[in-house]
Write a structure and sequence with these properties.
The protein has 238 residues and is of the alpha/beta class. The protein has one domain (3-236): P-loop containing nucleotide triphosphate hydrolases (Rossmann fold). It is built from ten helices and eleven strands. The chain has helices at 3-8, 14-22, 36-43, 79-87, 106-114, 128-134, 149-157, 163-186, 198-210, 218-236; strands at 24-30, 49-51, 55-56, 62-63, 66-67, 75-76, 91-97, 100-105, 118-121, 139-145, 190-194. A hairpin with a 2-residue loop joins strand 7 and strand 8 (100-105). Helix 2 (14-22) packs across helix 5 (106-114) and helix 8 (163-186) packs across helix 10. The radius of gyration is 18 Å and the shape is globular. The mean pLDDT is 92.
Length: 238
């Protein structure tokens, strides 16, 4: 069977479901320049966490002049290898972006669970639904939010060498941010953390990750309101 059919029709089997339900998994999500990558790196300094490394069929590429490494940035596999993983039900989920396939293997969570670690990743929002459908009781999603629109704009602009380069990407980044915020605010299972101070944000995310029963508190409600305010501000700036 071709990979297109395998990916479209893929369903995790019961042994894979059991692995996902047994594992403790935390996803750090956020709009661009919210600080999610920094928070993940800081949390990984603790021995409590193990990074989920996704599989992909795309080729390694350079990030900031440094070439990606197999087994560190991604598990780089061929299309045939990905097809075999799907045919043998060794993946949890798989998605296609730009003609390349991405997904998380059952083995990634099994290894973390065996070592009594919290599995952690910064996958995109559309990759989390698969995990919640399988194991809502063992998956925690934390959405990182800049404190306000002005701070967010400043952080994004600082990533560009010129105003022209920023303006070239701005409409796409704005639209993606709107779509992501609208999605996470429409479902009940996201925790929200305001990244106004990176040390505080890391501590809050770590506390949420260690909750035994994925408890929501007053801080979540306040942060959710700030996220809605940010969404309204982004929409106004057309």
């Amino acid at each position: 069977m071709k990979i297109e059919q395998l990916a479209t029709n893929y369903k995790i089997n019961q042994s894979g479901i059991d692995v996902v339900r047994k594992a403790k998994t935390v996803f750090i999500v956020g709009i661009t320049s919210a600080g999610k990558d920094t928070i993940v790196r800081r949390l990984l300094n603790s021995s409590d966490y193990r990074l989920i490394i996704s599989h992909t069929t795309r080729q390694p590429r350079a990030n900031n002049g440094v070439m990606e490494k197999d087994g560190q940035d991604y598990h780089f596999v061929s299309v045939d290898q990905m097809a075999d993983l799907l045919a043998n039900h060794k993946m949890i989920e798989v998605n296609c972006y730009g003609g390349n396939y991405y997904g998380v293997s059952v083995g990634e969570l099994a290894d973390a669970s065996r070592d009594n670690k919290i599995s952690i990743s910064d996958i995109e929002v559309n990759g989390i639904s698969s995990f919640y459908n399988i194991a809502p009781g063992s998956v925690t999603a934390i959405f990182i939010v800049p404190p306000d629109y002005e701070t967010w704009q400043k952080r994004i602009r600082n990533r560009y060498e010129s105003v022209e380069l920023f303006n070239k990407d701005w409409n796409d980044r704005r639209e993606i941010a709107i779509n992501e915020l609208e999605h996470v605010l429409s479902v009940p299972h996201y925790h929200f953390v305001i990244n106004d101070d990176i040390d505080r944000a890391v501590k809050v995310a770590d506390k949420i990750a260690h909750h035994e029963n994925n408890i929501f508190g007053r801080g979540d409600d306040e942060a959710r309101l700030r996220a809605r305010d940010l969404l309204d501000a982004i929409k106004r700036d057309i």
